[in-house]
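Structure ticket #2291
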Amino acid sequence: MLVWLAEYLTQYFSFFNVFSYLTFRAILGILTSLLLSLYLGPKLIARLQLMQIGQVVRNDGPQSHFSKKGTPTMGGLLILGSVLLSTLLWADLDNKYVWVVLFVLISFGWIGFVDDYRKVIRKDPKGLIARWKYFWQSLFAIATAAFLYFTADRPAETALLVPFLKDVMPQLGLLFIALSYFVIVGTSNAVNLTDGLDGLAIVPTIMVASAFAIIAYASGNVNFSGYLNIPYLPYAGELVVVCAALVGAGLGFLWFNTYPAQVFMGDVGSLALGAVLGVIAILVRQEIVLFIMGGVFVMETLSVILQVGSYKLRGQRIFRMAPIHHHYELKGWPEPRVIVRFWILSIIFVLVGLATLKLR
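Resolution: structure written out below.
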């Protein structure tokens, strides 16, 4: 929004040329979303407490979690609002990729909001029934994937980029829609599963978003993309501002979500953030790299799949409790130890993912 104003003012004041620089707007995006989160956070928490919108704790969960009951939830609204406003202010709104990400952010945030609303306001422990949750996730994911496929301007936008292999970029055709669907829905639910401890989900999200900012910058720059031998995607550069806004909002939320948490993000935050990471990976053609960088999300998801599968097939559990962060809690690890060690793992996964850009 302000980009348009700056372009107009440039003819009168050359200073406004600085707003044409992507890195400058990315810095402004981080600061804007961070400051918005820090300013609005206490107000939102107070409002949630007044409305008695508190966390529902599983009776079969770790006993240490019983003290969390009643802690304000739906704090993801703080993240979504900060990202949305910061992006609208500093991103180039003529860029279709920006609108795709905002659509996914809002649509999946809406799904999470309905789920949280039914749990904490209507006191329905089931929230949004699973089949309806997956229906809406599928609908929005397929709509997004179909739009990207039918509006693609160049072959690279629908090709599969394989890490470590320089010349392997098969065209997906209509399989692009199927792959995109699984990436968006899968990542959305993976982040949702990870959001079980204070700060556990938001820090890996910040790290992955930071890495995607680097990848988006390189993909949108003809020189860097050529040097790294990755597809040049003209629209991708503007995603740097979106990723920056996500990082700033995430840091602001972490201020209140760090152990012991004053607020939880709820499904309105986790479902939306996961879907946004998924769609950004699709836009920069790095779905496989997302699988690597989001290793913590993958671990959490696989632990649930293995636990459920083992119990149904053998009648035995592999872990003391799933997702896997609860397994380590029940082994006696203090919650902060589990959180920080998973953060360390996330740093390692992100660095490995970034390394694949050059190891081709």
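Closing remark: Residues 22-50 form the longest helix (29 residues).
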